What does this fold into?
Amino acid sequence: MVLMRLFFAFLKVGFFAIGGAYSFLPLIEKEVVEKYNWLSKEEFLDVFGMVQIFPGAISIKYATYTGYKIAGIMGAIAANIGNLLAPVLLIAFGSFLYAKYKNAPSIKSAFGMVQLAVFAMIIALAFQTVNVNQLCHFRNILIIVLSFILFVYAKVHPALIIICAGILGAFLK
It folds into this structure.
């Protein structure tokens, strides 16, 4: 029964993870923290920090971590199959529709609105992952600003920024 729950929880994430990258984190949180209590809020945020270090899609890493924690190897497999099945089916169907209707004004408008909603969820998640008290320290604000500049303007790879921030944090206790 737990394997089916893992499969369907991550199938739901896969179906509604529109926008990629960090946009689906609220969906994962809703399923694994709020609905099934597989992870605590604190553990969810700890895992968020951990999964950013390793390569690959964040949803796969969350599916693997959660599935393994709940039901071992079979849980990780069930969660990942659910996670991957929806996008595979949707992309196959969407590719057909997009090729046919990509220039329709309503389709362009729909994609624009989805981008705005995803942007809002990413901002909300960013505020949830940081303790507001951390924003009161000049050193922490400096790290945020430097990371932003390095990522947006200098085009430094995000993994390098994250690794350097972690190393710096280890030495600036």
